[in-house]
Structures are given as structure tokens and as C-alpha cells.
Fold this sequence. Notes:
By secondary structure, the chain is of the alpha/beta class. It is about 25% helix and about 35% strand. Mean pLDDT is about 90; it is low at about 10-20.
Amino acid sequence: MAEAIAELEKIVSDELGKSSISWADAPLRAGADSADLPDWYRELQDEAWKTFMSLADPGRRDEAWRFANLKLTKFSGLQLATAVDAAQAQTLVERSVAGAKSSAHLVFANNVLLTQDGEDLPEGVICLPMNEALLHHGDKVRESFLQEDAQLGGAKFAALHAAGTLSGVFVYVPDGVKVDGPVEVFHWMGGKERVILPHTLIVSAEGAEISVIDHYQSIDEDAAGLSIGMTDIVAGKNSKVNYVALQRLSVSDRQVQIGSSQVGEGAAVKTALVNLGAAWVRNENISRMMAAGSRSDMLALNLATSSDEIDQRTLQLHEVEHTESDLFYKNALYGQARTIFDGLIVVGKGAHHTDAFQTCRNLLNSDDAEASSMPGLQIDADQVRCSHGSTAGPIDPEQLFYCSARGIPAQAARKLISFGFLHDVIDRLDGDDIKEVVNRELEKAFAAMGE
Length: 451
């Protein structure tokens, strides 16, 4: 009997480990590739496709997918999103409203660039669509492009992304240059079960400063599309990078967003994930503190409604002495929404005098909402200050009573309190222009909820 049970378990395990559905039969590339693309990029694409085909779907035995609804990770017959027509393109450009202080403005729809404006950028700054950057600045792109492995569970998504023809931008800021106003990039997605593959690569040289906002929005309300985006940030000595991924996709869409930061000596990188839509979101973020004085701030603001699932996995990796990191995630949940947080702080051997903090807080506005958190520490050094923690609970009844006593209806009071709860993250962003953009989108999201 024991042998029979063991054999059955092996069969089940083998079946769970197999990729039972063919996500795509060929790389998601738009038409014939340009013959001018560098050889190293073509080789990278080919290797990525081989990796994609060799990897199994996320499975129940994968620790990196613990608590996740694996039904949402099943795909079949994925196709690259097709270009929009001229009239629709004009409409999308008009809807892509950037902040008043933006230094550059680019609009993509279904992987195709519609418009770009970077006249206000300082001399020497490169801000180009990824395909143009590969053609004209291939060596600079190659140094930093996809240098970090997707080790938090999304390797199959990352491989499919890398094997495709990418949209997105390459931003390079030379020594000592400070860019006033953020670069804003809009990624529109539409078409039933179609895929976009946006990539953002930000490189700041010594003493440089730059801010970038990626907007993700839907063309159709019920197309059930998929965005597989990746972000690489490389911050040079004493530089400063601010990055925001602001997602307001439709309730039928899904998104995978994988990011990495490499923080140099005395540099500071602040990343913020703002999720205000989509039926399913998978965020993976790795931040590496690679030299003394480096600092990483990892922020997230999530509004989950209906039966949404927001799944976030993070790694704060301290490799040397005298480095800092601070993770601060906040989730407001309604209906049957679910959030998952799995974060790990790793203080490497000899990385003394490290300060590293990790906080995840969940506000539950429904008895059916669910928050699962798994914060963790791994410390192999001395003289460190590290903490991690997570909370989940409903709104304090006294706060609701306070609002009720002033004539504010219960539902409006919940929205008001939830807005303030999430606004703590906005307060930590750098730059009034960035705060204004995020605050505006958060107000829209709450207004769209109705009562």
C-alpha cells in the first residue's frame, strides 16, 4: 500500500510539474525583425525562447507561488497585440495626459510607438523607444539589459518577454545631469487575449538624477489582455532614480511586472508600484545594494476590489557593508479581493552595519477579503538593524463612528479612510509632480468604485 501511494504521489507531482498548456507556439514578435538589430540581441532572444519552452508552468509545489490562484497563470495560444488604426491612435494620444512638469512624453499602443516628445530633456540624455535604442546605442543597452535573473518565480514570464520584440524605453542620464520633471510613458493594451511586452531600462551615471513613470491602461474594457513588463534600473555612484509603475488596466486584464534595481555607491533608488486595476497582478522586485552608501526604497500602493488578486514577491539583497533599504507596502481590499506578499531581506556575509526594514499593511473592507503575508529575514552579518512585519485588519470602528457623527455615510467613510490609509505611500514619493500624478489616479479609482 505504501509503495502504491508513493507511486501515485510521484505521478501527481510529475503531472503538476509539466506545462500542460502551450502558451505560445512561436516567439511573440511583430512581423519581420529588422536586419539591423544587433547580433547579441538576436542571440538573447533565441536563448530566451529556448528557456521559455523548457520551463514548466507555475505549480502547486513551487514555494514562489504559494497562496497564488494558479488558474490565473494558465494561458493558451497567446498572440502579440495588433496595431491600432489611425483614428484610435489619435484618440489614445489625446487620452494620454501627462503631468504639467513632464520632461518627456511617449505613448505606446499594443507595442507600437504612437508619439514621443523629449524636447525638454537636457543635452546628453538619451530617451528613446527600445527598438531605436538597440539600433543607435546598442552597446549602452547591452551593458544593463536583462542582467538580473527572474528568481522570484516569474522566470517563464521573463523568458517569454525576452524572446519577444520589445516596446518600451531606454533612458540614460550622463554624469552630473539632473532631469527636472519625470519622463512619462503610456502603455495602452487592447485586443482579446492579446499580449504587450513593455520594457523600461533606466541607467543613471555618476551624480545623475532622473524620474520615470510608466502608465499601464486598457483600450478595451473586456478584452482580457496580458501585459508582461520588465524594468531594469542601474544607478551609478551618487545618482538618484525614482520610478513609478502606475497600473489602471481594466477588470478583465492581467499583468506581470518584474523589476530589478542595482544600486551603486552612495546611490539612491526609489521604486513605487501602484495597482488600481486588473483582475490579476503579479509583481516581482529585486533590489541589490552593491556598494557602501547605497539605499533602496521599495513602495507599493494597491487598491483591490471585486475578486482581484494582487501577488507581490520581493527581495532586498544587501551585499556589502553600510547599506540601507526600506520596503513599505499598503493594500486596501474590497469584496472578495486577495493580496499576497512574500518578502525577504538578505544581509549577506560580511555586510555589517546594514539597516533594512520591511512593512506590509492590509486594510480589509470586507469579511470576504483575504490577505496573506510572509515577511522574512536572513542575516549573515553583525551590527545590523533589521525588522519585518505585516498587519491585516478592518477599519477601526471608532474611526467610522467619528465620521458617522459628522454626517458622513458609512460607505463614503470607508472610502475616505481607505484613501488616507493608502495616501501614506504617496507621501513617501519624491517630487510634487509625481505625487500629483499618483494622487490624481487614486482619486479616479475611488470615484469609479461608486458606492
